[in-house]
Amino acid sequence: MSVAAAPAASLLTSAARPSLWREATRRFRRHRLAMVGFTVLLVMVAGVLAGPFVYRVPIDRTCSPGCSTVAASRSPSAWWPC
Description:
single chain, mainly alpha, 3 helices, 60% helix
């Protein structure tokens, strides 16, 4: 009788235990600081992905106002606003 009861008991305990991923996700979601960090990370990634659609400036025009190229922004007069 104990031989037949042993496999049934082991099946019940393994089915009642959550998987490793489910347990890790549950612990992560309950940790408030981890969720804050994850939210900040998601906002940063969303900003990086949405940035080119919001601020449409060619990459060679990313110098100070009044400069025509990136090479012109390397001159010392472009460093200080007049």
